[in-house]
Amino acid sequence: MNTALDSSIVLRNNVKVFGHGTQVLMFGHGFGCDLNTWRLVTPAFEQDYKIVLFDYVGAGNSDLNAYDNERYSTLEGYAKDVLEICETLNLKDVIFIGHSVSSMIGLLAVNMSPEKFGKLVFIGPSPRYLNDVNYPGGLERDELEELLEIMDSNYLGWSSTMAGHIMGNHDRPELADGLASSFCSTNPEIAKKFARVTFLSDNRADLQNLKVPSLTIQCQEDFLTNEVIAAYIEGITPGNQVTLLNSTGHCPHLSDPTGVINALKPFLNKA
Question: What range(s) does the AB hydrolase-1 domain occupy (predicted)?
Fold first, then answer.
C-alpha cells in the first residue's frame, strides 16, 4: 500500500469515514454542493453502516490544486476519483448513493469496476438533460447554452437565481439560501467547467450495462428531472426500481430527509 498516494487521495477529496457498521454506504454530492449536503440523512445509518463522504475536486474542502482540465473534462474523470477512494480505503461491496450528477458518476464507477460495488442509488438522476428524439431530457440546446452563458458572465447571480429553482419549496426560503451559499463557496471556474460536463453528458447507454441492483428516488415537480425520466431509467436499466416521493424539488435529502431515509432503508435491507 502506497501511504503517500493514500494520503494524497484522502486530502484531494476531503474524505471522511465514520459509523459503526461494516457495510459501506458511500455518498456522492451533486453539482455545487459538498459532503455537508448529507448531514440530515447519515445519522439514520451511521449506527449500522460505515459511512464514506467526500468532496469532488473543486467543491468543499477538496484540494483545488488537484484539478486537472483533461481528467475532469468528462464525468469519467470524477468516476475514477470514486474508484481511487475505494482502492485507497480498501472498500468492498460498496453501496453508492449519488445525488443528481453523482448518480451518473456512480453509474460510471460501477460499470468500470463492478466487483467493488453491491448496489447503486440514484437521487434525482438524469442520464441526459437535453431533449432528443423520443427522449424528453427537459432542455433544448439553445436553452442550455443560454443558461451556461449566464453562468459564465455572472456566476454569483446565476447561483442565487438557480438555487431557488433547483431547491423548490418556495415556502421554505432558507433551503434555497443554503444551496445558494453552497454554490457560492464552490470554486467558480471549476464549477463552470463541471456544469458544462454535467449538462452536456449523455449516459443513457451506460444505464443498460449496469450489473448491480439500483434504486431511483424521484421527487415531484423537480426542476431538473421528473417522473418520466425516472420511468425511462427503470425501463432500460437492469434491476432498477423507482420510489416516488411526495415531496418536491431537486434536493430531497435536504428538503425531505425522512422521505429519503424511508426510501433507502428497504432497498438497503433487501437481499
Answer: 24-195
Catalytic residue among 100, 182, 201, 214: 100
Most confident of 165-169, 172-176, 257-261: 257-261
Residue 95 pairs with which residues in a beta bridge?
25, 119
Q: How many CB atoms lie within 10 A of CB 219?
A: 27
100 is catalytic: yes
Cα 249 to Cα 218: distance, rounded to the nearest angstrom: 9
pTM over 0.90: yes
pLDDT band at residue 4 using 50, 70 and 90 as cut-offs: very low
Catalytic residue among 102, 159, 206, 250: 250
Lookup: cell for 167:
431547491
Q: Is 222 an annotated catalytic residue?
A: yes
Of 3.90.550.10, 3.40.50.1820, 3.40.50.720, 3.40.190.10, the CATH number of 3-269 is 3.40.50.1820
Residue 160 annotated in active site: no
